[in-house]
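FIELD: query
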Amino acid sequence: LEDQLRPHDLTLRHFPQSFEFSTLGGWLATRSGGHYATLHTHIDDFVESIRAVTPRGIWESRRLPGSGAGPSPDRLLLGSEGILGVITEAWMRLQDRPTYRAGAAARFKRFADGVDAARALAQSGLHPSNCRLLDATEALLTGTDDSGSAILIVGFESADHPLDTWMGRATECIRDFGGDVQPRKSRDGAAENWRNAFIRAPYTRDALAILGVISETFETSCTWDRFDALHASVTAAALDAARTADAWPAVVTCRFTHVYPDGPAPYFTVLANGRPGEQLHQWDAIKAAASDAIIGHGGTITHHHAVGRDHRRWYDKQRPEPFAAALRASKRELDPAGILNPGVLV
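FIELD: result
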């Protein structure tokens, strides 16, 4: 997709971590999260119209820049994970390729101060394209920074104007909370180290699994007032479950993948020493404990990893029952034989 757009100096500018092996249809069916850490965080934000083939006929919405005509047909297909139809076409909003960029990384002695700085940036109206906070352990394990500090990576991009003013104001926000700002002057430094680690992460996970290490992630979003309790609970639940399952030693890290004016999207990683022959059972225990903690503290079971089968039981708890009934009715109407991705969502 991007290769076809590049000669026209256009871009969709949506880069999920699965970009190498995923498709536009897959992004739509799973409501994937992408490149932008603020504002246009999900594929939803770029959709004009979707066409799908269902067992009952063609589902195609009208191509419009916006509409207030009842519930959106596109919204029902977004995140439907293949249970209502197969997405075959979509009209998407494109952008000019960015030509101006500015960025910096900041160290914080306390993760909590980094949280406050990220919140200030999310509520500032600056809309940075990158605003990712890593706790000290995440920064260390990914090779981003070995100072023992939490790291906040901030970036801006534009196809229209220089970004010095935006970066200057972001720097002020960061310093208000004690951040030590390191301007990005080259392709070296914490921001580039993190980018490389992010791209390598799925391959690193596979290598760790071969070695018998349990490597799992839990991602969510919550309001700012609930983050501290959710963070503490998920961390404790995952570590307690790992210890009980004899998957020890273990470590849990946290970062923000996206931030909103009303809350962050925390992303937890657990690494645990698996016992040969027991890794699946140990993984399941850790996953269940962390997921229970997420739902119990007001988070969503997934911010951008979709529901699938792994998250189904917690999704059932999260959604309102009348909505679940409406979704089941939609499934019966569009797929009366139940042949489309059975067992998912409903």
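FIELD: remark
The radius of gyration is 21 Å.
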